[in-house]
Predict the 3D structure of the following.
Amino acid sequence: MIMDPAVMGYYARGGELTRLRQGRGRLEYWRTRDVLRRVLPPAPARVLDVGGGTGVHAEWLAAEGYDVELVDPVPLHVEEAAKLPGVIARQGDARALPVPDGQADAVLLLGPLYHLPERADRLRALSEARRAARPGGLVAAAVISRYAALHDSVYHGYLLREGRQAAEYEALETGLLISPKEGGFRGYGHDIDEILTEFTEAGLPEPRRYGLEGAFWLYGDVDDWLDDDDRRELLLDAARRLECEPSLLGVSGHLLAVSSA
């Protein structure tokens, strides 16, 4: 298993323990769960959660009766996920999954494509997901929008810092996301149409693309909406109604692409 040491170091510090459980990250979590609940086969289907981190999605899937196995390259993530009831967790690489052919009803890649800047590696990961899924099974992969870093930089005011503009504009051209902070996030941002071509080349035809957060993650009061149960449901419903609008897909920080194996 060969992973970028900078990426491994970033996750070894434990940021994934809380990222989707607090702040704006909750919108990504709730919207991912919302889409998956509509597209997954019914429980007790077998779900392979590849790059599943500490098990934030594996936890609710297992609680709803799914047979869940999580594979992740980070030892800390595997250790935490293995503590969850009903979740089997082991270490592994999305590009060479340690699982038999065709035994999963659904394969989720809710993180691996974020950290594979080489196209060949992304195609390998998608092809491995197709191999692991049964014929006609579901493959769902999350990607970061090519435009997310620039949007986030304006949201936080980072774009005002010296040298930040050049880095953000370079990311628009190359898709390479490199945080200027020591030990910060390193990843890859997809062009919206790039998702279609990569799925197709990996043998996953006609993926349906869902914009997860829409523009709502950029609203200054989004935490207030997420903190209030009634307002949160209104926000999730609004995002659901816009999730497949082509003109808005790139505004989302994250997208989910879904296809049949």
